[in-house]
Amino acid sequence: MSEGGTTPAASRADGGAGRRARAVWSALVEPGDEVAGALVAACGAAPALHWVDTSIRRGHPDWDALEAAGGELAAPVRRRVARAVERWSARRASVDPERDLAAARRCGARLVTPDDGDWPAGLDDLGAASPHALWVRGALPARGARAGATAAADDASRVVALVGARASTSYGERVAVDLAADLVRRGWWVASGGAYGIDAAAHRGALLAGGGTVAVLAGGVDRAYPVGNARLLEEIVVSGGAVVSEVPPGAAPTRSRFLQRNRLIAALSCATVVVEAAWRSGAASTAHHAARLLRPVGAVPGAVTSAASAGCHRLLRDGVAVCVTDADEVVELAGPTRHLAPAVEDEGPAGEVDGLDPVARRVHDGLSRRAPRDVDVIAARSGVSVAEARAALGLLELDGRARRLAAGWVVVPGHESGKG
Amino acid sequence: MSEGGTTPAASRADGGAGRRARAVWSALVEPGDEVAGALVAACGAAPALHWVDTSIRRGHPDWDALEAAGGELAAPVRRRVARAVERWSARRASVDPERDLAAARRCGARLVTPDDGDWPAGLDDLGAASPHALWVRGALPARGARAGATAAADDASRVVALVGARASTSYGERVAVDLAADLVRRGWWVASGGAYGIDAAAHRGALLAGGGTVAVLAGGVDRAYPVGNARLLEEIVVSGGAVVSEVPPGAAPTRSRFLQRNRLIAALSCATVVVEAAWRSGAASTAHHAARLLRPVGAVPGAVTSAASAGCHRLLRDGVAVCVTDADEVVELAGPTRHLAPAVEDEGPAGEVDGLDPVARRVHDGLSRRAPRDVDVIAARSGVSVAEARAALGLLELDGRARRLAAGWVVVPGHESGKG
């Protein structure tokens, strides 16, 4: 890294340059680009961007500078990074953070980064796929009790995602309105998308109860999609809720951004409840994102004769979701007893592990509890070959010490410090 | 035991005396009387009855004779047996098997005992609570293929209980009719009670499809309860199904017999499906009997706004039942593949996959992580042709996203969500 001496800690404290860099990252890379996420996590937002810019200027990645910051990179990792720099370079010239920040100001939005107090901590569980920043109109659920809410817990930890089909039925909309209103009355926030159908019904229910709701958009926060929901989004903002996106104002809501947007809804929320969903649906994808994050998932049953409930029933059948029929059951699902599970404590270096051969021990040490890592990243961290890492991970998985999530490998809590 | 030398094996082979004794037992003791069941299992039906009669005549239990057959009895067991003999003695004089058998002949019923070829083997899983005999009008599902049914399995192992509330809705009745008819069309039998509502709808559905159904009554098979279902029960008998009870003709359907009857429905069937049930209901009790017998339990979901589905949702929430929405899912629940434990836990549908063409994406979605699937199953699930599925699978395999095992294709973990 040309600045030299950057550490992970620097990423949270690089102030103005960091914020500006995150604004750039949010426009430069597609949501969920894990190479970008890993680079920023390793070097900090501004140094990582500086390195990318230097590499683009020189026409090739500057491996010496990168490895000075992040350690030796295995060949497959280099290839992934090189490909990423290529795809970013195509867009780099058109990224203008000042323009985006000005557009944000015009529509009453601001940039919220992991350095900010209202950054939703749950997003960090996305690891390398966590967003670089959020563009926010309105107020995010606060850490620390909101006036009117139950004082015990902070709002940021009391958010339930209510998601479902655009092609909803009057039954599903009624249930979404009732659930959202009842949740808000119990001091919870609601999160959903910005679509017609269940999304809109969930927000309407939250607004009816006078409470907080977060609409997470796939495009910029200055453009309602669909336009027919523009008024609803305005109401959310003026009523103390938030309209949020990880792409800058003006950005188009593409199909892939819709799919990636679902991971934000899941990560923002303690639990995700699917109210109505067809057999294949975006709502089911949000549910699977939540399940991968080890967050509880609920599904509202409906008539088996209703295609709009088929996705809910599939989630129930597959054991992805628990059957929920009212707000009490949703709170029970999302409640604190439910997430005591693994995610609470942060990583910290893993201790020594008994009964493991040296390679397995190093691979084990290269795992995090929270941030899923790819085999090649783990190999690189552990200083073993990818083949060795793969073999060791298989053994660790058999042993219950490691777990393979969709986003990569994590260490199993209780097995970081070599017990038994 | 005065005859001496009786063994459990003898109970299946004591011929005419055994049949007559079982007719007596079925009238003498209340359904589910486990003391009677244990005595008969230990000594055989006729010797056990002889011992009871001797004890009644003498005015006290003949422990020496009993222990000669069954080994030493601990004090608490002696007390239970003594109390049982007392309660049986009150009824013994009024039991007349010849009268009951004559009444059975008059209504076209016959006595079926464990010695008979059409004795439903599943009843034996009830252990000491298994019935002493069944009074049967019509034909029980045969061991060995019935004409018209799929030849592979015998009918006796292809029975599904469809149970539910008397206070059903038109939705529940429609689902019961459809499920029963579709099951019969697939070569399955249906079992249920004789009540209005879901019971009657299940039988009607089976009859519509021209197939076998078993009505298990709490009272004698000569008396329809409720009377309004008399005609339906006749139709069942003439259509090749059966009306069945463990109490003799003329016996009244008491409340406790209704509850005990539920265990017979569960034990007769490979799986029990609750179609509609209120929060507390007899159908839920049948489901719990099935669960105790380690038989699969299904529940049909319904609107959360319908009280008639509250019991189904409760079974789903409590993890007693699996969500089932059509006959295919019921067959999957009841079928042999379901009994092989590992197949039950499926990872659920894969999430979205970037960088795949639409056909490949659908094929990818049609794969499970755990359950290997054949190409034609995958094609059917994915809604593509078999040729398309085969081509796409080849590409997915090259790509490391799918893997061909001996038993079929699976998705490769870490590639369900296709990020990066």
Automatic annotation (TrEMBL), chains A, B:
Domain Smf/DprA SLOG stretches: 111-333
Signal peptide per UniProt: none
InterPro entries, alphabetized: DprA, DprA_WH, DrpA_SLOG, WH-like_DNA-bd_sf
DprA winged helix domain ranges (all copies): 353-408
Domain of life the protein comes from: Bacteria
Annotated SUPFAM superfamilies: MCP/YpsA-like
Coiled coil: none
Cited Pfam families: DNA_processg_A, WHD_DprA
Family according to the record: Belongs to the DprA/Smf family.
PANTHER family named among the record's database cross-references: PROTEIN SMF
Name of this protein: DNA processing protein
Source species: Cellulomonas iranensis
